[in-house]
Amino acid sequence: MKSWIDHLKVYEPGKPIEEVARELGFNDLDSIIKVASNENEWGPSPKAIEAMQKNIAEMHRYPDGGSFYLRHHLAQHLQVQSDQILFGNGSNELIVFLTHLFLEPGKSLVMAEQAFAVYALATKLYQGELIKVPMQAYTHDLDAMLDAITPDTKLIALVNPNNPTGTAVDPEALIQFVRSVPKHVMVIIDEAYIEIMPKHLRGDSLSFIREGIENVIVLRTFSKGYGLAGLRIGYGVANQKLIERLNRVRQPFNVNAMAQVAAMAAIDDAEYLEKTSQLTQQGCQFLINELEKIGFETVPSAANFVLVKTGEGRRWFEDLQKEKVIVRPLDGYGLPDHIRITVGTLKQNQRTIEAIRFLQQKR
C-alpha cells in the first residue's frame, strides 16, 4: 500500500441516530433527535417522493450514465447549456474529481481555515499542497485568500455559505474576488445551501458561466434545500471544456437511477423550496435568540445551522447525546469550543434548547 495513505485523515460525519441508541442503550429511536448533519428536517420534496414511488419497479435497470433528461431539465431551469453540467454522487464526488484533475505533488489548493473539510481531505488524497487562510470573524477573508495564491496554485475554494460557520460573503465582493483570481487558478464556488440562504445574499454565480469565464465552477446539491441527502446527488456547472475533462475521471453510473428521477421532479417543486427556505430562516433565528438568552455566543448564519460557542464543544456533544440530542462537535475544524446545531422543526428546536438549558443549569 502507498505509505502516505496512512497519514490521511478520516472524515467525521454526524452520528446516526441508530449508533447513538446502540452506544447509550436507548430503545426508543423516535425519542432521539439528530441536529448534526445539516439535513432538511422537513423531508424530501413531495414531488420527489411521488416520482420515486412511481419508479420503484424500474430499479433493476442501470441508470442513465449521462443523466440526459435530468441534465437538460436542470439546464433549462438554471438557464445554462446542458453540456455545462456534470452530476456527481453528491457534490463531494465533484470535489474529488476536481482535485484528481488539477492536483499532484507541488500543486496547491487555497481554502479558508474553517471551511468544508472535504477540500482538505481531497487535496491530501492527490498529494497536493494545502494552503489554509485564517478567517476573519468566521468569514472568508477574500483579500487574504487572493494573497495566498502562488504560481503553483491550481484551485481556490470558496464555500458560500460556509460550512461549518454559516457565514456568507457579500455578493458584490464575490464578483470582485472571482475577477481578481489569476486565470491559471480554478475558482470553486461551493453553494450547497444556496436554495435556503436569504435571497439578498445569493447573488448569481452562474452569471460567470453564462459569460464564458473559464476558470470558475459552481457546485450545488439536492441534499439541502430539496431534502435528498440520502440519495447522494449534486452537480457542477462550468464551461464545456472543463465538464468534458471532468467526465474523463468520472466512473460509469456514478448517479443512481432513483436519485435522477427524484431530482428531476424536485426541480419543479418551487412551492416546497420556498417553504423550506422560510421555515429554515425562522428556525435559525429562533435558535440564535434562545441560545443568546442562555448566554452563548452565536454566529449569524445564512445556512440551515448555527455555530455556537459553548466552551468544551466535545463535552457538550457527549452530554447532549445523553439527553437524546445529537449535535456536531467541531474540534476537527479547529473550533474546539464550538458545536454546530442544525435547524430542525419547531419541536426539534425547542427540544434542543431545553436540553442545552438543562445542561447549562447543571454546570
Task: Please explain how this structure is put together.
It is a single chain. The protein has helices at 17-24, 46-55, 68-78, 91-102, 117-125, 142-148, 171-180, 206-211, 240-249, 257-266, 270-294, 313-322, 346-362, and strands spanning 33-34, 85-88, 108-112, 129-133, 153-159, 186-190, 216-221, 234-237, 297-298, 305-309, 325-326, 328-329, 338-342. The strands form 3 sheets. A 7-stranded mixed sheet has the order 2-8-7-6-5-3-4, sandwiched between helices. Strands 9-10-13-12 form a 4-stranded antiparallel sheet, with helices on one face. Helix 3 runs parallel beside helix 10 (257-266). The model has no long low-confidence stretch (mean pLDDT 96). The protein has 2 domains: 3-43 and 271-362, Aspartate Aminotransferase, domain 1; 46-266, Type I PLP-dependent aspartate aminotransferase-like (Major domain) (Aspartate Aminotransferase, domain 2, 3-Layer(aba) Sandwich). The protein has 13 helices and 13 strands. The protein is an alpha/beta fold and 363 residues long.
Q: Strand pairing plus helix content: what structural class? A: alpha/beta
Give the spatial strand order of the biggest sheet.
2-8-7-6-5-3-4
Task: Kindly report how far apart the N and C termini lie.
Answer: 48 Å
CATH architecture of the largest domain: 3-Layer(aba) Sandwich
Low-confidence stretches: none
Mean pLDDT: 96
**CATH topology-level fold name of the largest domain:** Aspartate Aminotransferase, domain 2
CATH top level class name of the largest domain = Alpha Beta
Work out the radius of gyration.
20 Å
**For the report, how would you describe the main beta sheet?**
7 strands, mixed
**Beta-strand residue percentage:** 5-15%
Q: How many DSSP helices?
A: 13
Helices and strands, in N-to-C order? HEHHEHEHEHEHEHEEHHHEEHEEEH
Summed up, the domain count is 2
User: CATH superfamily membership of the largest domain, which one?
Assistant: Type I PLP-dependent aspartate aminotransferase-like (Major domain)
